[in-house]
Design brief:
This protein has about 290 residues and is of the alpha+beta class. It contains 6 helices and 7 strands. The protein is elongated. The mean pLDDT is about 80.
């Protein structure tokens, strides 16, 4: 581009010198200035397009690299998440098989194996549902109660994590929506698991439903370290995990599934800070009928 600009300006200079004998000096100077202005304008446009192209190309490459990194992390996380319950199940079975245990000890080991099986089933279910949600007929639409589904999800989660402390409360009238009951249960379970894992040492989780003519909100509240505002735009992306949580088991699919399921039910989800510390996930539900 510099060579091209220099060539045209040099030609314009020679034309200016040649025109001095046939045209008035001010006219030849004006034509030379117009030529220089044209070259500068076109060069600036080309330079701007070139810079914008480089920026776009860098963003595409960076986005692909980030996606590949998240997918690699996902594969590693899934491998770890699947191996951990499998190892627990195998250890429990081998212990029962090799040692002469009393009935209570055998029951404790069997319960440990059962818990590992449920965790393994949950991880496989997340992976399968993440694939299923990309299909056009992913939802099986039937009317169901939000409060009843939430209570069922809480009971199922407590059976999976006996140490969890979940309190469910309802304010106002229940809401019935058309949607996929099983998918909605998965959505609530993933929110509960997220609050349980990242909710601090207390493991205290509050689930609050607020139903009225003006709003129907379902809130899942934890009292952990919370989520910075800069990360709230990314936590619903597939495979995305906060850097501080790398040592906590997870695949980065849970909240992504939550976001997809909520949107497919005509609802929305947002994240705010809990008073006193923590994160509050608020699902804005469509009105009852």
């Amino acid at each position: 581009m510099s060579w091209w600009a220099n060539l045209i300006i040099s030609s314009a200079s020679r034309l200016y010198e040649a025109s001095l004998g046939t045209k008035p000096e001010f006219q030849a100077a004006l034509e030379w200035e117009q030529t220089v202005f044209m070259v500068a304008s076109e060069g600036s446009v080309f330079a701007l397009l070139f810079v914008l192209g480089l920026i776009w190309f860098w963003k595409v490459i960076n986005a692909d690299n980030n996606k590949l990194a998240r997918e690699r992390n996902f594969i590693l996380a899934v491998t770890h998440e699947l191996k951990t319950p499998i190892a627990a199940i195998r250890l429990a079975i081998d212990t029962v098989d090799r040692l002469d245990l009393n009935d209570q000890q055998e029951m404790e080991l069997l319960n440990e194996a059962r818990s590992g099986t449920l965790r393994l089933e949950k991880r496989v279910e997340d992976i399968l549902q993440a694939t299923r949600l990309n299909l056009p007929d992913a939802l099986l639409t039937l009317p169901f109660s939000i409060c009843d589904s939430t209570e069922m999800a809480v009971k199922k989660f407590v059976s999976l994590y006996p140490n969890s402390k979940i309190v469910f409360s309802k304010m106002g009238d229940d809401t019935t929506i058309d949607g996929d009951h099983e998918m909605w249960m998965l959505c609530i379970t993933n929110l509960l698991e997220n609050a349980y894992k990242y909710g601090g040492d207390s493991k205290q989780v509050e689930v609050v439903f607020e139903g009225s003519l003006r709003k129907n909100n379902l809130s899942v509240i934890d009292h952990g370290p919370g989520i910075d505002e800069i990360d709230r735009f990314n936590i619903f992306e597939a495979f995305y995990r906060l850097r501080r949580d790398k040592n906590i088991d997870g695949t980065g699919l849970g909240l992504h599934l939550v976001s997809k399921i909520v949107q497919m039910h005509g609802a929305d989800i947002s994240v705010t800070s809990t008073d006193g510390g923590g994160a509050t996930f608020v699902v804005g539900l469509p009105g009852s009928f």
